[in-house]
């Protein structure tokens, strides 16, 4: 089967980045040491060259991921190998952060690319939970990462057919949590909002869909594709939680145009190199902060603090301020962790250089 790569997002600009003697391909799925790649002459499994492995060992962000455009070299034995990852236009990266047993943060400061060259980031949040209607804090986190990736976030409140009343209020609450972001209710079961979501994928645009297990991500992918391309499962009735139907990330070309990347459910996603993303999500707090009496106001009791004044008047929800503080602390922690890792790597490089210089001095006649 042959493919028109322009329908997958290939362009003349990307062609200028392709090394001589190689052909382009787009990564549809990754495995250990290899990737399933879509090239003009069909789909292939291509193993990584030593160049790619060395780059990934130095920085995990350089590891090929779903959505990457790559340079493929043809081997005499009759197969391709993945020789190079081409420059990314966007990259959705999560930090190497996890929860410790005492509720703190741990990690190595290194990131993992979840998807690359993505135009749209669908943040899928189910409208029905066992205890509440939507996790606004999770939406804020994912939208911040979406902005930081370079893609355009769009929040989809899924399973809207199960929401009996108050849907308009729910959407209003989500719009407060994600200012400036399109928010839509979607039901893959009856088709409400599916065509609207598909409009974001006109032409050769690529979207990644993120959210927790049970959000209906795979069901939505099937609805957008117009056929069952992903396996689905029902949410557990006991606790309202979903199971991890999707166990890998996969790029899926849609027959009507566009591409979508389905992802496993995300329990927790750490911040990585976050700056402007958090500012955009909390644009309301940033605007209030500009009205504070002191430019370095920490919004923790200083006189003339416009943020605390808005909190007292009810203009600013307390939940939102707490969420902002949490993401600010985590972003600062990750930045410090990353700086510490870079300093350690620099120290190790100098140790190697010094050792080689001493060895050379001993061997000098």
From TrEMBL:
Q: MF terms per GO, please?
A: GTP binding; GTPase activity; metal ion binding; rRNA binding
Q: Where in the cell is it found?
A: Cytoplasm
Enumerate the residues binding Zn(2+).
292, 297, 299, 305
Report the cofactor remark.
Binds 1 zinc ion per subunit.
Q: Which UniProt keywords apply?
A: Cytoplasm, GTP-binding, Hydrolase, Metal-binding, Nucleotide-binding, Ribosome biogenesis, RNA-binding, rRNA-binding, Zinc
Source taxon at top rank: Bacteria
One GO-annotated biological process of the protein:
ribosomal small subunit biogenesis
Which positions in this protein are listed as binding GTP?
Answer: 158-161, 211-219
Requisite cofactors: Zn(2+)
Q: Where is the EngC GTPase domain?
A: 116-267
Principal location listed in the UniProt entry: cytoplasm
UniProt EC number: 3.6.1.-
Subunit-level organization: Monomer. Associates with 30S ribosomal subunit, binds 16S rRNA.
What family does this belong to? Belongs to the TRAFAC class YlqF/YawG GTPase family. RsgA subfamily.
Q: Which HAMAP family match?
A: GTPase_RsgA (MF_01820)
Name the job this protein performs: One of several proteins that assist in the late maturation steps of the functional core of the 30S ribosomal subunit. Helps release RbfA from mature subunits. May play a role in the assembly of ribosomal proteins into the subunit. Circularly permuted GTPase that catalyzes slow GTP hydrolysis, GTPase activity is stimulated by the 30S ribosomal subunit.
This protein's name? Small ribosomal subunit biogenesis GTPase RsgA
Q: Record the organism.
A: Nonomuraea longispora
